[in-house]
Amino acid sequence: IAVTFLGVTIYRFSHEAEERWIGGQLVSFTSRSDDNGELRQVALKLDGGRLRGTYNGRPRDYPATLIPASLWHPETVRQHVLLDPFKGRERAVSVVDKGEEGITVKGKPVVAHRYLITDKIPRDIWYDSNGRLVRIHFIAKDGSEIQVTPR
What we know:
The protein has no helices and 14 strands. It is an all-beta fold. Strand 5 and strand 6 form a beta hairpin.
C-alpha cells in the first residue's frame, strides 16, 4: 500500500507472509512487514507440540492449535484467539455468524456465508460453499473502505 499526496508518498506499507501446513496442522509461519519504516519479522515453527520462534528477535511460544489471522482458513471463524501475522502475538477475537447471502465474485453470482470478526479492526468475511474465502471488507484506521477479493 502506498498513499501519495501531490505525487509524494506519505505512507507505505508492505507485508509478505508464508504459511506451511501439513495434514491440517500449521508447521511454520513467517512474515515480513514494513509499516512506513517500522520493520517487523515473525518466524514460528512447530516444535514439540508448540509453535515456537521469534518476533523481531524476541521469543514467542504458542499452542500448536493457533491459526494465523490471514483469514483464508475456514476454521478461522471457530476461533477465539488468532495469531497476529504482523506482530506475532495472540489476538482475542469474537465472531458473529451473519448467515448466507448472495454476492458477486469475479462477475458471477455466488451464495456465500458471511461472518463478522471483531478485534482491533472489525472485518466482514465471506466463504463460498467449498469453504474458500471469497471476500473481505473492512474500514481502515484512516476511514477508507477496503474490499479484497482473493484470487
